[in-house]
């Protein structure tokens, strides 16, 4: 046996080598104590390797030499410059998104009038974009240099020393950056941009789902479902559709000048093609910019158990489980007194309804005229679609059913009847809007004490009795001799029944019909509700005993404002109303502290008069159109001017108007609007209200509306060119543009199943022969299934071969060549 001893072991252990061995061993074995991470261990070792009180430069020079110290200083300098440059670019982008130009970008001009010109503003924007691009290129070069210096430092230092130096570099830079960020925030605040204010996700997102949402997903959803992104993809045919419509419209205009229709078509075509090619070049950068947000939204969309929608009242985002959503909708549909499941083929049933309407229209064609007949004629219609909006303000979060009726067989008929029936929806007790209500209420004066109350009808639309209301409307029209187009009682009754009774809709691929009540979403919903109540409330108020008859009664659809002598009369009056019709159930609210909310106002009793200010329900979340949303600036301007005008019309004194302006300033600031932008619009609004201007009379022009996808600044260039073409050639026409933001959070989260191909209408289709290269391209306004059966020579009602079908190029080709018609 022998023994071996190591002389002076402790003093001869290589500290650096042993430290590296320990750290790597702990990391590889996942045995780091107290759940510390590598950075925390490095921080602890930093105190050992680079103790306080000793010069960092001396330690690096002693261990590795002056060249390594030089590399470290360059690394530190480049890292700080890169971080500061990132902060500068972020500042410039915030200014660009807020349409605000930093003072160092602005240049002096000779004439002050030039400062407000479009040319000056466009050059400022170009300079700002150039500054962002040049700083971005500079940042890329700095990052490359920094990465090279980091590699060099890593190769020259030990692992532990390298980690310690990088940790110290980041710590020192973060300390310096506190002042840099404060300086940028102060600059933004001077420009009217308060970055400290923003909508909190927990205020606008209602979590009714089991899914856990990350912080990044919450911050993205908190921007709102209408938040727009730069357009990333657009179909060729959809882009050119708006320009095709312009060309079709101008064919009936009178041309001024030397241009012909074909030359004008060529000019419009050149504008469209140039804009499309420029968009295709910019498309890649849009995708790269939004790729992070697109990935977050795609993860939410791909969750099959998650429903993302808006609340029933107020703006916000609701996340709920699909199973719970379907269960609540089915509970509503299981009410056999309101809905019935149809076990028939959807396409066949829609055709039967179309035939029923079209037979009626043919019988009155001479009375209504050719143009009205063509507008109401049903072809290629689809069933309605049922969806629900959660009532987050109520216990249990019940669902309000909404039926999207656009494109249904009787939708145009319902729209046609609305203006005809409107006179029967008004009486001395109704108010048309908040402005009229405010005017009536503020004019009141009372010497005796009064009690304010409001009465609401529960689920009014679905409880309006269709047959009874139809009879009320028809008799009212007959008594006043206001039936249009010389229709008789039977014909107008049939029209109302077709527009309301036979409405069908789908939910989860099942077809339903509503057997009673007006569908939420039908154009006739408010009309029927108002007509029903206008007829009955006159009788009810005339028969009401004087002991609790209200001294004032004003109603807007299902909400009623009343004045009584004392509180006991309120309950008596509501009990009286509850006995008048079995379909109606009433709830009421009495004033509290001399205040009562009604519609979007709050009414206050003040020395024998009623004063009014703006009221927001508890469901108000503070969410609006975010200023950084990719949408036309006009939309954002109108969102401010609309709320200012609303406050001006509602507030009965300037004190409440001033308070409302303070509220709106904070509201728009939280939605990333620059305060200077808000003050500018407010100043212009008040100047118009308090300055007398003589209107300039001019000849009325034909309005021509054009809908195009919003492409940012490119859209306004298109508008400018097209307006110049119209100004020279069609001076009698006013060309108006409607720019639509197509890529929104709502569209990216959309899980709605598209209609089956057989039910789609107004489509362009292509037939390709299975045996040869022959092709046929056609279009149809009817359903695709209808057109396919017609090509096959079969009846679209029975599916049986017809003895004498209408001519078809596809069928003739197949018969002549012997190729199968498939």
Structural account:
α4 (56-64) packs across α5 (66-97) and α23 crosses α25 (675-689). Among the domains are: 11-190, no CATH class; 317-614, no CATH class; 757-817, no CATH class. It has 822 residues and is of the alpha+beta class. The chain is built from 29 helices and 19 strands.
Topology diagram in text:
Layout: H1 9-12, H2 15-29, H3 38-49, H4 56-64, H5 66-97, H6 118-156, H7 159-190, H8 201-204, E1 205-208, H9 215-221, H10 236-250, H11 261-301, E2 306-309, E3 317-321, H12 322-333, E4 339-342, H13 346-363, H14 365-368, H15 370-376, E5 384-390, E6 399-404, H16 411-421, H17 434-442, E7 451-457, H18 460-463, H19 466-480, H20 489-500, E8 504-507, E9 510-514, H21 525-543, E10 552-556, E11 559-564, H22 567-578, E12 586-590, E13 595-598, E14 601-606, E15 609-614, H23 633-650, H24 654-670, H25 675-689, E16 702-709, H26 713-729, E17 733-740, H27 745-748, E18 763-768, E19 775-780, H28 784-791, H29 809-817
Parallel strand pairs: 1-3, 5-8, 16-17
Antiparallel strand pairs: 2-3, 4-9, 5-6, 7-11, 7-12, 8-9, 10-11, 13-14, 14-15, 18-19
Helix pairs in contact: 3-7, 4-5, 5-6, 5-7, 10-11, 11-26, 16-20, 19-20, 19-21, 23-24, 23-25
């Amino acid at each position: 046996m022998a023994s071996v001893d190591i002389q002076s072991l402790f003093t001869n252990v290589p500290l650096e080598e042993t430290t590296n061995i320990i750290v790597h061993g702990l990391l590889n074995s996942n045995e780091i104590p107290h759940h510390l991470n590598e950075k925390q261990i490095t921080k602890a070792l930093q105190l050992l390797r680079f103790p306080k009180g000793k010069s960092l430069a001396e330690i690096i020079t002693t261990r590795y030499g002056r060249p390594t110290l030089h590399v470290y200083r360059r690394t530190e300098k480049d890292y700080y410059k890169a971080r500061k440059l990132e902060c500068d670019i972020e500042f410039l982008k915030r200014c660009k998104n807020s349409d605000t130009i930093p003072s160092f970008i602005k240049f002096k001009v000779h004439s002050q009038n030039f400062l407000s010109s479009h040319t000056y503003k466009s050059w400022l924007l170009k300079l700002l974009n150039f500054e962002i691009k040049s700083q971005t290129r500079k940042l890329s070069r700095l990052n490359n240099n920094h990465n090279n210096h980091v590699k060099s430092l890593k190769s020259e230092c030990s692992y532990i020393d390298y980690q310690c130096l990088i940790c110290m570099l980041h710590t020192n830079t973060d300390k310096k950056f506190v002042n840099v960020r404060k300086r940028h925030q102060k600059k933004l605040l001077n420009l009217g941009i308060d970055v400290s204010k923003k909508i909190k996700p927990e205020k606008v997102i209602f979590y009714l789902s089991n899914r856990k949402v990350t912080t990044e997903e919450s911050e993205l959803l908190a921007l709102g479902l209408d938040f727009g992104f730069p357009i990333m993809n657009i179909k060729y045919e959809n882009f050119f559709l708006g320009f095709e419509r312009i060309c079709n419209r101008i064919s009936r205009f009178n041309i001024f000048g030397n241009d012909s229709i074909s030359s004008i078509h060529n000019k419009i075509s050149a504008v469209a093609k140039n804009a499309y090619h420029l968009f295709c070049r910019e498309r890649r950068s849009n995708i790269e910019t939004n790729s992070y947000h697109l990935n977050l939204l795609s993860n939410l969309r791909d969750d099959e158990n998650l429903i993302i929608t808006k609340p029933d009242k107020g703006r916000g985002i609701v996340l709920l489980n699909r199973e719970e959503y379907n269960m609540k909708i089915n509970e509503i549909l299981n009410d056999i007194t309101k809905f019935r499941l149809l076990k028939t083929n959807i396409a066949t049933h829609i055709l039967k309804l179309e035939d029923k309407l079209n037979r009626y229209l043919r019988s009155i064609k001479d009375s209504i005229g050719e143009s009205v007949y063509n507008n109401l004629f049903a072809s290629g219609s689809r069933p309605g679609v049922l969806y629900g909006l959660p009532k987050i303000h109520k216990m249990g979060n019940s669902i309000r059913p909404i039926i999207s009726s656009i494109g249904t067989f009787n939708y145009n008929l319902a729209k046609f009847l609305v203006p005809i029936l409107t006179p029967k929806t008004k009486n001395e007790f109704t108010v048309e809007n908040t402005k009229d209500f405010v005017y009536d209420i503020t004019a009141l004066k009372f010497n005796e004490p009064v009690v304010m109350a409001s009465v609401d009808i529960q689920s009014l639309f679905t409880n309006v009795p269709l047959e009874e209301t139809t009879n009320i409307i028809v008799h009212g029209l007959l008594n006043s001799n206001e039936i249009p187009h010389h229709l008789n009682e039977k014909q107008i009754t049939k029209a109302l029944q077709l527009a309301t009774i036979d409405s069908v809709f789908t939910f989860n691929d099942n077809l339903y019909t509503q057997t009673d009540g007006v569908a939420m979403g039908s154009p006739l919903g408010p009309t029927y509700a108002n007509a029903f109540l206008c007829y009955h409330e006159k009788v009810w108020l005339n028969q009401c005993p004087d002991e609790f008859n209200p001294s004032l009664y004003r109603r807007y659809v299902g909400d009623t404002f009343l004045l009584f002598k004392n509180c006991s009369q309120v309950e008596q009056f509501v009990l009286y109303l509850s006995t008048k019709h079995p379909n109606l159930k009433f709830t009421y609210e009495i004033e509290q502290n001399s205040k009562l909310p009604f519609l979007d106002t709050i009414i206050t009793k003040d020395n024998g008069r009623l004063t009014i200010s703006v009221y927001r329900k508890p469901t108000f979340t503070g969410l609006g159109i975010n200023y950084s949303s990719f949408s036309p600036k006009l939309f954002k301007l109108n969102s401010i001017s609309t709320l200012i005008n609303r406050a001006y019309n509602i507030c009965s004194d300037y004190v409440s108007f001033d308070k409302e302006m303070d509220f709106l300033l904070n509201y728009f600031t939280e939605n990333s609007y620059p305060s200077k932008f808000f003050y500018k619009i407010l100043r212009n609004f008040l100047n118009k209200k308090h300055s007398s201007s003589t209107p300039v009379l001019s000849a009325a022009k034909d309005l021509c509306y054009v809908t195009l996808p919003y492409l940012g600044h490119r859209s306004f260039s298109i508008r400018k060119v097209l307006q110049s073409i119209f100004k020279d050639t069609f001076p009698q026409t006013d060309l108006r543009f409607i720019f639509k933001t197509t890529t929104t959070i709502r569209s990216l989260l959309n899980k709605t199943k598209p209609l089956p191909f057989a039910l789609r209408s107004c489509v362009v289709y292509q037939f390709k022969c299975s045996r040869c290269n022959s092709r046929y391209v056609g279009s149809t306004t009817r359903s695709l299934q209808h057109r396919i059966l017609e090509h096959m020579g079969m009846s679209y009602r029975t599916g049986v071969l017809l003895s004498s079908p209408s001519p078809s190029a596809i069928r003739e080709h197949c018969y002549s060549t012997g190729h199968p018609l498939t």
